[in-house]
Amino acid sequence: MSMAVVGMIAGMALGFAGYFGGFGAFLLVAALGALGFVVGRFADGDLDPGEFFRTRDRDGRRR
After folding, report:
1. How many CB atoms lie within 10 A of CB 17?
2. Contact between residue 57 and residue 51 where contact means Cβ atoms under 8 Å apart
3. From 44's CA, which of 3, 33, 38, 57 has a CA 20 to 30 Å away?
4. How far is it, in rounded angstroms, from Cα 28 to Cα 41?
5. For position 25, what pLDDT does the model report?
6. What parts of the sequence cross the membrane (predicted)?
7. 60 or 55: whose pLDDT is higher?
8. Ramachandran angles phi, psi of 56, nearest 5°
9. Mutual orientation of helices 23-44 and 3-21 as an angle, nearest 10°?
10. DSSP state of 47
11. Are the CB atoms for 56 and 63 separated by under 8 Å?
12. How far apart are CA 37 and CA 44, in angstroms?
């Protein structure tokens, strides 16, 4: 499935949530969608949890 189709489906879900549930439902669906995206990237191995917790040197390089 292409990213365009995934984006279209996500947009339609947000549209339905906003129309039928109001602005609060729109925000809830958007937040849960973003959380699901990040968890999916972790599951695929595209993100490393350690990247969020490593410190940087003064030069901006990672230790």
Report:
1. 20
2. no
3. 57
4. 20
5. 87
6. 12-39
7. 55
8. -115, 150
9. 150
10. S
11. yes
12. 11
Q: What is the dihedral of CA 39, 3, 1, 16, to 10 degrees?
A: 80
Per-residue pLDDT of 44-58, as tens digits, reads 777 777 776 777 666
CA atoms within 13 A on the CB side of 57: 4
Choose between 63 and 58: higher pLDDT: 58
Which of 42, 10, 43 has its CA nearest to residue 29? Answer: 10
Q: Give the Cα separation of 3 and 5 in Å (integer).
A: 5
Domain ranges of the chain: 3-46
Structure tokens at 28: 């809830």
pLDDT in tens, 1-44: 777 878 888 888 988 888 899 988 888 888 888 888 888 777 77
